[in-house]
Amino acid sequence: MNRQVNYIISAHLLLATLTAGVLFFKNISSTEFLPENEEAFCGTVSPTAAVLSETAVKGKTLFMSRCASCHSLFKDGTGPGLFGFEDRGSWADRNKLYEWIKNPSEFMKKDPYTRELQKQYGSMMTGFPDITRDEVDAIADYITQAGEQRGY
Ligand code: HEC
Prior knowledge:
By secondary structure, this protein is mainly α. The chain is built from 7 helices and no strands.
């Protein structure tokens, strides 16, 4: 009789542990491991914003390989979150943006805004002397369209 009770209790404990385990892993796999800009989006997305343009897809690849080690789109990290960057500093002028990305330390000498940023973030952006204008344009497209996808 006693052994039977023990057996039933153990079986229930085992079942509870398994269920908790399954729920735990299900939860992790559905949220934790998605990259920041691919998080499940729960609002309505307009059809035009749902898909990245061909250029923006190239931009995304470039962004991931060259910029994402320091920049996210929507959160500050080693460098500022880049969504909306064209409203800041002198980045509405695309020529200035090319100059900056090619050689940040040189650009900073004549630009108080980026000197201020550097003080704030306490580290120096790497230069990309070989980056082309098309590549910078593609990255900028990606940043804008990723924001649109989020409904910004
Ligand atoms: C090694 C880290 C690092 C990498 C890699 C990097 N950045 Fe930065 N970026 C920074 C930091 C830090 C700042 C802030 C200024 C400073 O301290 O140099 C910055 C600033 C900027 C700004 C100005 C942001 C604002 O809010 O005005 C832009 C635009 C930018 N980066 C674009 C890029 C792009 C595009 C790439 C990839 C081609 C890139 N960065 C790669 C670290 C980095």
